């Protein structure tokens, strides 16, 4: 059923926002009076207050509640309690922060308030900027790295177009590792055991070498079996003959070059990773301090694999059967071999009492090999397989055999940032220069080894030896005291960005009518003919991607350069009612540069509709921009026992980047060729590209709180309302499981446009005006409670419980609400719990913990089924639990 948007909702939300804004301006004075009266009546000896949290969201250290930005700070101890070990584990812990995983290329998708990116290539940019200690980290695959020994993680929501590293349209995640401490020598070690044979070690030691030198070492090791059941793909069907029977020959259909039996510790969804960090801190004198460190990360896991949504498929002919949700049959066992080596340096020099100069630099080198089974053993049902004829089979083949290979990748980046900070009685500012330089190389291949018409292989190889990303920016932001208690903010940034492809090559054919893939190492017995052209044991490592790019036909050189320039700004006002309560308003812009893809023949290897041949295009796209307005309130109440932050936001999202298969050209039909009914626009050439999709509006309310409701109790949480809608997307293609919609009672796909507009021709044009953006659930809510119970001998027992609710979330702007093939994750509630026993002297503690105790099956990435009417997705982990013991020394 097509999703429709109530026209009353935006107005209702705006009215609600206006009411909240009025309350924010009017209420603090009354609250302050009540708080003062209560404080005078209290016994001071029993008063306990919430600790002040300092953040770096404005590139200066400031109280969280005095920072006029929508920012959440998560302390390192809380992250350990919730078993957070990588960025994706933060899902549900921050309002409107969502994560997804593209399993084939280990690309981590981060979304804030519905603003996101799905371009994980070596020159694509994320919409959310990830920073380590304020230094930008460019590649999305780096978000898989372990998070350990942290001071805190800060999540800034909304456009960050002035101060933070690379310009960001969605927001920033800033990960702050713990710094070496001059004061004393100390350390801690924790050992954790859990279900699925999970084992984890974390250890930290801080060594003080005097009042001006300290060294800190930290290590983390994380291993766990896969939580799916994995079997070898040894299915043997053979082609379907004209009499309707299959032709097995005793040998597997799927490629067997890499197929082998593996143990649960090597299944997809396992973990096998470790990381270490060594950091030094030197106070050269009272004015100059340097912090430098080296970090190494190693990932030897199998990665993730796509899985059918068994709950949605239940009761249909595509039901999962007895194996259940967590099952895959694979012929390409997962393998990731990724290392990230990072050097970071930060120098601060206090030139005088009101002037500080800072310089930060980071060099990172990421290497990765990855092999991935793209089909997960999903084959067409026997009755849906087409019969092979003398002229071939243009329908569904007898088996599916897809795989992706990152044969090598080498990503190198230099990030430099110079900052000047000055503070005076009436104003302060931060100004700086930012530079980013990336040199990336990758060899990436995709296989489809059983393809129409003769069930022979086809594939592509992308050899990119030198892809460059350059970014430079000048920025400045000032806070000016306009009047007593009133502060104005003005910020400006000028960015220059460029992308370059030097000598890149794309080669191969999505054409299986000739036996080019075999590279002369194998001759099919009958092409054309009524027999299976190959079985899985006929492939050798002298074929396809393992033989190198020289095996592939039709190589295309991709050398190309593009550049962009863009100013962005921030304007703000902050009014302090008193030292504990304030309101703020801001208007900020952000931008993400455009880009291009591999050189592509938009004539589809033939003649274009206008008569030209080989009309190449780099599939270019323009920058995207966001303009974000916010009004908010932050305050502390009731003797500092309650902290409250409330923010209303309204974002205008323009030229959003959307990556996928799209029409890129129109070819001329060959003599005598006509388009069949099931593909009436067969002359349209399709290609993988990023395109700009028009305009959207995003608005909502975010409420965060922390409280000490009674003695020894700690309460925290958030509530969020997010309303996103597409304002214009005239070229959206409703090409989603079209052949099965009638079977499942879904609205049919929109008719294919056959007019003269080449931007629409060949697409099933669906009007998605008013639809929700992907990764943007309307409602989310979280509540956490912990309580300290005093035991005998000075020991403390702390049980804690956390609940997180999220309403329905779509993965495309299609918003298809069908229970079998809908493009959504249904609403769910997750429960986490822990109980911790701590010794009297603080030297040890033992903690039982559990996450996703409700055992929800939650999608974070969605695609169409490989072989029929179902969806094929990536998932968050199921229920996890374990015990953790920590020793402090």
From TrEMBL:
Signal peptide limits: 1-32
Membrane topology: Multi-pass membrane protein
This protein's GO CC annotations: cell outer membrane
Biased composition (Basic and acidic residues): 231-243
InterPro entries linked: Beta-barrel_TonB, Beta-barrel_TonB_sf, Plug_dom, Plug_dom_sf, TonB-dep_rcpt-like
Residue span, TonB-dependent receptor-like beta-barrel domain: 339-853
Stretches assigned to the TonB-dependent receptor plug domain: 65-172
Keyword line: Cell outer membrane, Ion transport, Iron, Iron transport, Membrane, Receptor, Signal, TonB box, Transmembrane, Transmembrane beta strand, Transport
Domain of life: Bacteria
GO BP annotations, alphabetical order: iron ion transport
Stretches the record annotates as Disordered: 231-261
Compartments, record wording: Cell outer membrane
Keyword Transmembrane set for record: yes
Keyword Membrane part of the UniProt annotation: yes
Family classification: Belongs to the TonB-dependent receptor family.
Protein name: Iron complex outermembrane receptor protein
